[in-house]
Known about the structure:
By secondary structure, this protein is mainly alpha-helical. Helices cover about 80% and strands about 0% of the residues. The N and C termini lie far apart (about 60 Å).
Amino acid sequence: MDDFLGRGWHDLVGRMDGLMFARLLVQPAVAAVLAIRAGLRDAREGRGPYLWRIASDSGHRSQDLRQGWRDVGKLFFAALVLDVIYQLVVLHWVYVGQAILVATILAIVPYVFLRSLVRRVAARRGRTRTRRA
């Protein structure tokens, strides 16, 4: 088990340089753009923070998850495919768990947190503008 974790950590850290390093920057940046668009839409429509809605509003949870997956699903699959290609070229093997973990970290995590943050900031700015007017 210790060897498994050590190899896994080494493989994950090995992605920080060399072949296909740019994807580690580009994919979270694309997720951020998608999250900003969705967060602004949430603020405009008066919805609560995305992560909070998923956790607490069981009536709309499936609808919110589907809409979020529509936004970030293609990016997740692109991250997954690129990681599989990376693994085949560099590691000469495919570790499915690692590929899913990396795709989740590069696409879904930034999207979920930034969407809620942008909605919160946009809603707060909207309230400030309406108070001044």
